[in-house]
Amino acid sequence: MGIAQQRAKKVIGVNRRARHDYIVEDTLEAGIVLLGSEVKSLRSGRLSLSDAFAVLNGEGSLALINAHIPEYKGANRQNHEPKRARLLLVQKRQKNKLIGSITRGGYTLIPLSVYFNERGWAKVELALCRGKKKHDKREAEKERDWKREKARVLREHNRE
Asked: Does residue 77 lie in a domain region?
């Protein structure tokens, strides 16, 4: 992704727990089908991806489940349901690859972030993940603490 594209990307929500609870193998960008009131709510920066995941629904397409987009106050009767299943738009080849990984490999599709691209379209960054065991989480925490401690020691050493 180029520098110009990163500047144009407006991040709405990030799933912070995803990298803690899962080992991220691969990522991809997917479009998301939204209602008007959902877009308005997203533009105001309101979204929760904490328990969200993507699954293959009955028609053979991908759907985002448990993503909480709160109701938009100005929409009154035409409002949406906050935790409804939302259709994800991916290319056929990508979808077939993901379906194969999910069914055979024991992977899970987790949304890492939701953002508006440079054209103003809502996009979801999906990750093909494998769940971390408890000892993996401890190992990652030890490594993170060690890096933090090492950086602190180096800073103190450079001051002297």
From this structure: yes
- pLDDT tens digit sequence for 37-80: 888 888 888 888 888 888 888 777 888 898 888 887 776 777 77
CA distance 149 to 146: 5
Q: Which two tokens stand for residue 125?
A: 């960054």
Q: Are strands 122-131 and 53-56 parallel, antiparallel or unpaired?
A: unpaired
Q: How far apart are the first and last CA of the chain?
A: 40
**Number of domains into which the chain is organized:** 1
Beta bridge partners of 48: 68
DSSP H or E run through 6:
helix 3-8
Q: Give the CATH number for residue 70.
A: 2.40.280.10
What average pLDDT score do residues 24-38 get?
87
Which one-letter DSSP state was computed for residue 108? E
Residue 158 falls within a domain, yes or no? no
Of 109, 128, 104, the residue nearest 56 (C-alpha): 109
Q: Could you tell me the residue range of the domain that residue 73 belongs to?
A: 3-131
Q: Is residue 139 part of a domain?
A: no
